[in-house]
Amino acid sequence: MVSRATSLDIIVGVDGSSTSDSAVRWAAHEARMRKVPLVLVHVVVTPAWGPAPWLLSTAPLPLPAEEDRALDESGRKIIADAIKIVEDNSHGALPQIKSELFYSVPVSTLVDLSKKAQLAVVGSRGQHALHRLLLGSVSTGLVHHAHCPVAVIHDEIPSAPDRSKLPVVVGVDGSPASELATEIAFDEASRRGVDLVALHAWSDADVSGVSSIEWSAQQAIPQETLAERLAGWRERYPDVVVHPRIAWDKPARHLLDESESAQLVVVGSHGRGGFTGMLLGSVSTAVVQAARVPVIVARRH
């Protein structure tokens, strides 16, 4: 079944790896929550790509005729297996499933599809040595170039009695990207019926030499900033219980610490920088690479 993504679709890249399977399960749950179609996308890898198949490209590359049948069958089996994962984890609420099979470059294909999607989902790594490089690069490429928010799903999720009850975590710095991240985080927490932890870091630098007395005296400023950034969203989502967190420095480290007791982290694609901002370009990259829970990087259409 092949059909184009619509403006309401959630797209997920699949390659048969364990992280891809995790991405499919997470994306299916997200599609059920949002009551939107799920589009499973597989991009066939061919030798015709040359040494750097993860680079952005403007057009599909040719598929050698002798490999057409085998690669086509392999790609369709990967999609069929992904559909079965969705069906086996539907719990009686199966989302509408669509699929796409491409012979092209993964990043450019998914970036192009993201123009008409509300969320793109991808695993952090691939199946074996080559695919680990490809999918790692695909997730990085999407985080930097997608036209919609990107969810990166990891395979090593920390154990917890019931992760569905854990909070959503968001990094807040007041930049436009951070504002979008806050909007996404409130919406995700509301849909899940869980609390929201909102972290604001006063500095992106290492200021470990600053005395605790000085930090205590300065706390009122970031607390006021965070309260202002959250006020409107709290009014819009009165059902979400918010836990403000203020950190003096190292936002990535604090977000990763919070992620260990969370089910989802949301960060902006880039930040304001400076002493009062979180450098969310570097922060989002660090969190996407190191977090063990799903991470949504907020990107605007």
Give the uncertain stretches in residue-range form: 1-6, 49-54, 128-135, 273-280
Number of strands: 10
Q: What percentage of the residues does DSSP assign to strands (E)?
A: 15-25%
CATH architecture of the largest domain: 3-Layer(aba) Sandwich
Number of helices: 9
Number of domains: 2
Which overall shape is indicated by the principal axes computed on the Cα atoms? globular
User: Which structural class is indicated by helix and strand composition?
Assistant: alpha/beta
The level 1 CATH classification of the largest domain is Alpha Beta
Strand order of the largest sheet: 3-2-1-4-5-10-9-6-7-8
Percent helix range: 40-55%
Q: Which topology of the largest domain does CATH recognise?
A: Rossmann fold
Largest sheet: 10 strands, mixed
Helix and strand sequence: EHEHEHEHEEHEHHEHEHE
> What is the CA-CA span between the terminal residues?
27 Å
Mean pLDDT: 81
Organism: Mycobacterium kyorinense
Protein name: Universal stress protein UspA
InterPro entries: Rossmann-like_a/b/a_fold, Universal_stress_UspA, UspA
Family: Belongs to the universal stress protein A family.
